[in-house]
């Protein structure tokens, strides 16, 4: 035997699987012999190819095999046939049922697409598992802080001193004006080191990164190259940027494929760090100047702890932190997107929102659950007519498990049709969803393997959820009763009732959630942020020259309609040491005397800066209430603080401004020091106008051009900025709204089916009652009483769950509303009203019926 | 014998089976290739043989297991008398029909 060549094992297995037993011996033998013969005559590769091909040709036997050999599969064919017949017979209900299920599946599927996309971030890089970002911890006394980021020199020295680091790259964003033709556009750029290209599998369409260390070389992504009119053969390869007021030419040495969308790192314009270092000499040697990200790819099997300890050692050998404890650490690349504790920025794309993920998961699962419960309830009601069929099957020898399989198969048919329909629903829903989820999902591109796999999982889940209950119920039904025609299901149908209760529990939960979310958002939007955003325009333009600063301001003020103008710096962070040795962390900004009035802020104590007083430029500051509270100052005015920033030091507090939200509205207001002196570069021009209109903007543009041509005017409206801060909340709100409404509609469909079934079973009872003299109203009350008890339980449980979870969520906000009686009453009323209408729509028939019709049947 | 309608492949395979006392799949494939000049896949032969057997034109029996077949038995096919008759009639009918086709050199050139 050993001298014979063995055909591919898997193909043989396939052959054995598909061939009916009376054929297998002949076919297998013939193929084996032919394999020997062919490998001798035309070589083994040919024989192998031919063998596999012929096995494929044998697949045709499979049908024969299942038809003749497998009674289970034969039965399933029968189940499919009866299933389709029954669906067709009860068209109306089937359509409603399948549409409901399709909606549930579509929502669940969409949330699957979203959630799996969020979790897939950055995991596709070859080195994803061994790649990390530097983070650091600082602690002093009780206060500790973790942040992501590193300094220039860390990215230089750590890889040099720690051999386990295989690739290393710093990463930082930069902003330039880029010249395209005669136009200037704002361009975000990223600095990186050579290791970046290995680390993130950058694949070049042309050129390489081998010359990347040369400060005048850059590489572009394909789409950026297109924008800059750089052809793919690099026959033209000069890009002009404006930096520090002069135009600089860069040479494009390579074009790489665009990064995929599910990554935190998507540079389209990469510059070497040598360029940054040339322009920031002073910052290349400071160890604890955290202003960029650094990524490391570690050798396989290296533990994070070892590297972290080594990094800390290197850092402490070079820098002294007195009594503050500092430790370095590493954050896995794949966690960056969803870790809420460490920030993004500096080239890292905005983080995913865990809240939105949870909400869309909850809504997706709820919608699927409700739809499946609907299906089960419908099915139980509808299957009553099939008890005789089931009984006959049983008499002919079908076991319980066979009946069970039959109804699971039927559930599968419905679920499968629903799945197909849900693809169409996805097509309709996806554009809206992706807008609110800040994604760019395209219908054509979301259907990858993963999505289809998700669809299959949902299909199986839906089949089981929807099918198990009716299947169990019908398979356990007593055969004799079925044949006698006793078509009432045994027991009091507690599970059906329980399921309806559950649906309303979910519905009331979602309504309460939605109302609370609305209330919180309204509250946030109306919340006193400490300044007036109305008719306020922010113009972004750095200006070094104080002379230009003053004349630009005057020119602006001469435009009619402009009330006041202030030019300020951004808000930076620093710390200073008090006389008692305590290190104080504060934010600080350079403003001018018009800042407080332009921004519509209120001074709660002291006075504003006065340009006439020379000391106000060098020795005075205004602090905010948070600062006063943080330092525990009883009498802040006149207190001298040790604050220093460059030459500006030890100012005296001359005023206290009411807290205003200068950072994210989601964060508490931090202690702040404002001053007029110092060397911070002002770049934020705030313009308060009486009214904003096109002419005003055009006038501002004219003045701006006069001073800063060729730079384009870049401005925002403060009101938009504030609204943008709540973008996430309003997106969550819209998604919740959509999801809740669908869930409630689905619940109603379910209730309708449930009540409808019950009433159909009771038409005789109602008829007798009517004959005896009951009025429509009494019949209505009778039924309503019955269902409202169920709803009541559902509502109470739903409210309790909502109350608990929402309190938790609200406590994330520094300022938040309480849930309150109003919301509870409203959501209960909405639920009950919707339920009452649904029930009435079904009862309507029972109330108006002609008793004779149902009584004369027997 | 018009009850038996045979396809071209069926007819060819039937003739190959009739050539010898008994033959099996791989052998038939080899003979087919040498006479027809085209290669043929084994499953195709198997399907045809099954069909012929159903029509009663060939019959089959298992032989002994041999190592060159990976220890599997051969299935030998043998033409039945009806098979022989059907095949023969088809050939005769065809020869007869062919005899009515005129010689190309005399007619075709004149039209």
UniProtKB/TrEMBL annotation, chain A:
Instruction: Enumerate the spans annotated as MacB-like periplasmic core domain.
Output: 94-313, 506-662
Q: Where would I find the ABC3 transporter permease C-terminal domain in this sequence?
A: 361-476, 740-851
State where the protein is found: Cell membrane
Record's bilayer topology term: Multi-pass membrane protein
A Pfam family of this chain: MacB_PCD
Q: Which UniProt keywords apply?
A: Cell membrane, Membrane, Transmembrane, Transmembrane helix
Residue ranges of the TM segments? 95-115, 356-385, 406-430, 450-474, 494-517, 738-759, 787-806, 818-840
Highest rank taxon of the organism:
Bacteria
Q: Which GO terms describe its molecular function?
A: transmembrane transporter activity
CC terms in the record's Gene Ontology section: plasma membrane
NCBIfam families the record matches: perm_prefix_2
Protein name, as recorded: Putative ABC transport system permease protein
Biological source species:
Roseivirga pacifica
Native organism taxonomy? Bacteria, Pseudomonadati, Bacteroidota, Cytophagia, Cytophagales
From TrEMBL, chain B:
Gene3D superfamilies (alphabetical): Winged helix-like DNA-binding domain superfamily/Winged helix DNA-binding domain (1.10.10.10)
Q: Where is the Transcription regulator PadR N-terminal domain?
A: 16-87
What is the name attached to this protein's record? Transcriptional regulator PadR-like family protein
From the broadest rank down, the organism's phylogenetic lineage runs: Bacteria, Pseudomonadati, Bacteroidota, Cytophagia, Cytophagales
């Amino acid at each position: 035997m050993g001298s014979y060549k063995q055909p591919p094992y898997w193909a043989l297995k396939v052959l054995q699987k598909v061939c009916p037993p009376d054929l297998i011996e002949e076919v297998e033998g013939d193929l084996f012999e032919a394999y020997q013969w062919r490998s001798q005559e035309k070589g083994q590769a040919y024989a192998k190819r031919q063998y596999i091909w012929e096995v494929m040709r044998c697949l045709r036997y499979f049908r024969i095999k299942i038809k003749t050999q497998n009674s289970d599969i034969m039965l399933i064919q029968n189940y499919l046939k009866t299933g389709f017949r029954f669906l067709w017979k009860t068209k109306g209900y089937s359509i409603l049922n399948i549409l409901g299920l399709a909606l549930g599946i579509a929502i669940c599927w969409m949330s699957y697409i979203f959630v799996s996309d969020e979790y897939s971030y950055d995991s596709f890089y070859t080195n994803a598992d061994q790649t990390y970002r530097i983070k650091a911890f600082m602690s002093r006394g009780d206060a500790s802080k973790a942040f992501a980021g590193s300094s220039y020199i860390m990215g230089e020295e750590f890889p040099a001193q720690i051999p386990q680091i295989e690739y290393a790259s710093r990463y930082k964003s930069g902003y330039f004006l880029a010249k395209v033709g005669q136009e200037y556009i704002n361009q975000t750029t990223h600095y990186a080191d050579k290791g970046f290209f290995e680390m993130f599998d950058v694949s070049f369409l042309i050129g390489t990164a081998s010359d990347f260390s040369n400060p005048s070389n850059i590489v572009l992504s394909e789409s950026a190259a297109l924008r800059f009119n750089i052809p793919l053969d690099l026959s033209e390869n000069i890009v002009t940027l404006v930096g520090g007021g002069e135009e600089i030419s860069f040479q494009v040495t390579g074009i790489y494929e665009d990064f995929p969308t599910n990554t935190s790192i998507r540079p389209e314009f990469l510059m070497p760090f040598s360029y940054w270092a040339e322009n920031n000499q002073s910052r290349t040697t400071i160890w604890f100047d955290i202003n960029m990200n650094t990524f490391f790819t570690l050798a396989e099997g290296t533990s994070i702890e070892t590297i972290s300890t080594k990094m800390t050692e290197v850092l402490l050998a070079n820098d002294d932190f007195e009594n503050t404890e500092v430790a370095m650490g590493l954050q896995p690349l794949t966690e960056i997107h969803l870790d809420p504790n460490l920030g993004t920025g500096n080239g890292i794309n905005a983080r995913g929102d865990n809240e939105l993920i949870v909400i869309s998961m909850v809504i997706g699962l709820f919608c699927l659950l409700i739809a499946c419960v609907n299906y089960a309830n419908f099915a139980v009601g509808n299957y009553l007519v099939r008890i005789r069929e089931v009984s006959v099957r049983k008499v002919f020898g079908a076991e319980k498990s066979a009946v069970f399989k039959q109804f699971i198969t039927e559930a599968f048919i419905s679920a499968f049709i629903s799945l197909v329909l849900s693809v169409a629903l996805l097509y309709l829903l996806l554009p809206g969803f992706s807008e609110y989820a800040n994604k760019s999902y395209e219908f054509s591109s979301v259907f990858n393997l993963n999505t289809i796999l998700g669809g299959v999982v949902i299909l199986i889940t839906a089949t089981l959820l929807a099918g198990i209950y009716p299947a169990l119920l019908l398979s356990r039904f007593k055969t004799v009763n079925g044949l006698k025609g006793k078509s009432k299901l045994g027991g009091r149908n507690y599970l059906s009732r329980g399921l309806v209760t559950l649906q309303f529990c979910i519905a009331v939960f979602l309504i309460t959630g939605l109302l609370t979310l609305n209330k919180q958002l309204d509250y946030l939007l109306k919340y006193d942020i400490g300044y007036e955003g109305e008719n306020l325009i922010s113009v972004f333009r750095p200006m070094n020259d104080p002379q230009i600063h003053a004349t630009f301001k005057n020119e602006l003020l001469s435009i009619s309609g402009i009330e006041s103008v202030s030019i300020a710096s951004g808000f930076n962070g620093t710390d200073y040491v008090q006389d008692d040795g305590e290190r104080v962390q504060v934010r600080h900004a350079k403003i001018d005397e018009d800042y407080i009035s332009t921004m519509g802020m209120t001074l709660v104590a002291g006075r504003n800066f006065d340009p006439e007083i020379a000391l106000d430029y060098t020795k005075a500051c205004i602090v905010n209430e948070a600062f006063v509270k943080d330092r525990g100052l009883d009498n802040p005015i006149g207190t001298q603080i040790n604050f220093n920033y460059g030459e500006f030091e030890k100012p005296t507090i001359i005023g206290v401004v009411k807290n205003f939200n200068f950072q994210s509205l989601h964060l508490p207001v931090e202690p702040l020091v404002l001053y007029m002196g110092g060397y911070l570069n002002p770049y934020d021009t705030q313009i308060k106008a009486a009214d904003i209109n096109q002419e005003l903007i055009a006038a501002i543009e004219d003045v701006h051009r006069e001073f800063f041509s060729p730079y384009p005017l870049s401005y925002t409206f403060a009101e938009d900025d504030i609204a943008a801060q709540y973008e996430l909340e309003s997106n969550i709100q819209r998604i919740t709204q959509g999801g809740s409404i669908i869930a409630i509609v689905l619940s109603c469909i379910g209730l309708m089916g449930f009540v409808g079934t019950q009433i159909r079973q009771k038409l005789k009872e109602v008829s007798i009652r009517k004959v005896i003299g009951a009025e429509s109203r009494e019949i209505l009350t009778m039924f309503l009483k019955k269902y409202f008890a169920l709803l009541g339980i559902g509502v109470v449980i739903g409210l309790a769950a909502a109350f608990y979870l929402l309190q938790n969520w609200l406590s994330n906000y520094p300022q938040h509303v309480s849930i309150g009686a109003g919301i509870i009453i409203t959501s209960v009323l909405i639920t009950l009203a919707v339920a009452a209408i649904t029930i009435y729509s079904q009862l309507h028939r029972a109330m108006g019926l002609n008793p004779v019709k149902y009584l004369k049947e027997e | 014998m018009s009850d038996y309608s045979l396809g071209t492949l069926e007819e060819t395979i039937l003739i190959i089976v009739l050539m010898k006392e008994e033959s099996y799949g791989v052998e038939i494939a080899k003979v087919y290739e040498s006479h027809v000049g085209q290669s043929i896949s084994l499953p195709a032969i198997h399907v045809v043989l099954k069909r012929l057997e159903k029509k009663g034109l060939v019959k089959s029996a298992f032989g002994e297991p041999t190592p060159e077949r990976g220890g599997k038995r051969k299935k030998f096919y043998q033409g039945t008398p009806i098979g022989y008759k059907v095949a023969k009639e088809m050939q005769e009918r065809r020869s007869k029909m062919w005899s009515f086709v005129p010689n190309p050199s005399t007619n075709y050139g004149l039209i």
